[in-house]
Design brief:
about 150 residues; alpha/beta; five-stranded mixed sheet; 5 helices; 5 strands; about 20% strand
Length: about 150
């Protein structure tokens, strides 16, 4: 918890990269239990024409490659916007221990929509979720992005 705002600030830097690349500004990072940054990523759906190129999935792939293991046990994911169902499922599959996100997403966020995969007792892995860390900055960046897109 002590470093949540610091790591969220780094994830926000990734979101700014997405913004500059005309992608929906979402940034993510994965940190090991020892505090080592394993991966940093941002959305690249437009660039790659890939609907799965979400920041969370890219960060998971990079972190798994970094440690040469698909299990990210003990790791924390920081993401600037509440993950969608696809990403929340991937977080569960990767065995990440904790998710920290910034802005809530009432239209596409898995948890806001009631898909509580993180605490479903029927699944083989549960993880902690903390929302609203850096919410203002993340929400403001998203608002600015979509405001600019509507003007075009």
């Amino acid at each position: 918890m002590k470093h949540d705002f610091e790591y969220m600030g780094l994830a926000l830097q990734e979101a700014l990269c997405a913004f500059d690349e005309h992608e929906v500004p979402v940034g993510a990072m994965i940190v090991s239990s020892g505090g080592r940054i394993l991966a940093r990523a941002h959305n690249i759906k437009e660039k790659t024409a890939d609907p799965t190129a979400h920041a969370e999935l890219i960060a998971i792939r990079e972190a798994c490659q970094e440690i040469r293991n698909w299990r990210l046990v003990g790791c924390v994911m920081y993401v600037t916007m509440e993950p969608c169902v696809m990403c929340l499922s991937a977080i569960q599959q990767a065995r990440i221990n904790r998710l920290v996100f910034g802005a809530y997403d009432s239209k596409g966020g898995a948890i806001s929509l009631g898909h509580n995969i993180h605490c479903d007792r029927r699944l083989n892995h549960k993880f902690d979720v903390v929302g609203g860390i850096g919410q203002y900055e993340s929400s403001q960046l998203l608002r600015n992005f979509f405001r600019a897109r509507r003007r075009k």
